[in-house]
Amino acid sequence: MDAHVTVTKLPNSKKAASSAIDEYKPQDATTNPSLILAAAKMPAYQHLLDQAIKYGIAKGGTEEEQVANTMDKLFVTFGLEILKKVPGRVSTEVDARLSFDKEEMVAKALRLIALYEEAGISKERVLIKLSSTWEGIQAGKELEEKHGIHCNMTLLFSFAQAVACAEANVTLISPFVGRILDWYKENTDRKSYEPHEDPGVLSVTKIYNYYKKFGYSTVVMGASFRNTGQVKALAGCDLLTISPGLLAELSQDHSSVTEMLNVEKAKACDLEKIHLEEKDFRWQHNEDRMAVEKLSDGIRKFAADAIKLETMIKEKMLNVKNGQ
């Protein structure tokens, strides 16, 4: 497929991670709290965790402040490792527990960018990932407008979220194809879908068409794929973030791929332009049961993994302080 690809997931060794990136040559790569937690448990990445803990302890302050500084440093350290291998950008996520606090999200984003810049990495090579709550979208708007920081709006499931992101003029959105499909399979009698009728594919197609028809600059990056059929059904999308496992499957698939999304088709679609104030956004998003449940579930899961990571850091930090 001739599309810019972003790789997700860190394989279980540095060699595997490196070879996956070398083999598929992605443009960009992304992380999230769950992926960082999984990687932090792997022997191959223990030195990165150790570096972050030493940094957190050296910064001083209360235990809570030391853990927070360690978490920030760890997320950025993983991002720095990825940037050694990809030519484009890495996405680094703001703590999901801040999803309803615009000011705290902005402050955390500025902190993460400062850590990247201290390491010699320009903010142009970083996308700050924010939950697509109303507060998250407004944080993205402020970061883009006032600070020139590029944002990747994640946990995006509803059309209302996509419209609000476009109006906020954020750099990029990550609508979750696979998680939408998961919800429909779990909550309806239907258990299988052809790619062209897959609800996740249809959601991203509508968003892409809306953005292109009305000339929004925000990039659409389809994410969270469950199978190669979903990937091929979105051929032509601005960007796709694909796991190494699915990239391996695609590399063995020699069938022709038809461009499914393009600007000409989008311009011809019958979507009408809408504007969303906060009250409109909240109502329209609330009307989409799937989106409400998946956004809430995604925030809770990322928050839970952040807490697990903090617990791991506290234990290791105690061992370091005790000279173990």
From TrEMBL:
GO cellular component: cytoplasm
Record flagged with keyword Translocase: no
Localization, UniProt: Cytoplasm
An annotated GO BP: carbohydrate metabolic process
GO MF annotations, alphabetized: transaldolase activity
Catalytic reactions on record: D-sedoheptulose 7-phosphate + D-glyceraldehyde 3-phosphate = D-erythrose 4-phosphate + beta-D-fructose 6-phosphate
InterPro entries referenced in this protein's UniProt entry, alphabetically: Aldolase_TIM, TAL/FSA, Transaldolase_1, Transaldolase_AS
Keywords linked to the UniProt accession: Cytoplasm, Pentose shunt, Schiff base, Transferase
Signal peptide region: none
EC number of this enzyme: 2.2.1.2
Superkingdom field: Eukaryota
Enzyme superclass (EC): transferase
Pathway info: Carbohydrate degradation; pentose phosphate pathway; D-glyceraldehyde 3-phosphate and beta-D-fructose 6-phosphate from D-ribose 5-phosphate and D-xylulose 5-phosphate (non-oxidative stage): step 2/3
NCBIfam families found in the cross-reference section: PRK12346.1, talAB
Family per record: Belongs to the transaldolase family. Type 1 subfamily.
Summary of the function given for this chain in its UniProt record: Catalyzes the rate-limiting step of the non-oxidative phase in the pentose phosphate pathway. Catalyzes the reversible conversion of sedheptulose-7-phosphate and D-glyceraldehyde 3-phosphate into erythrose-4-phosphate and beta-D-fructose 6-phosphate.
Protein known as: Transaldolase
Originating organism: Lates japonicus
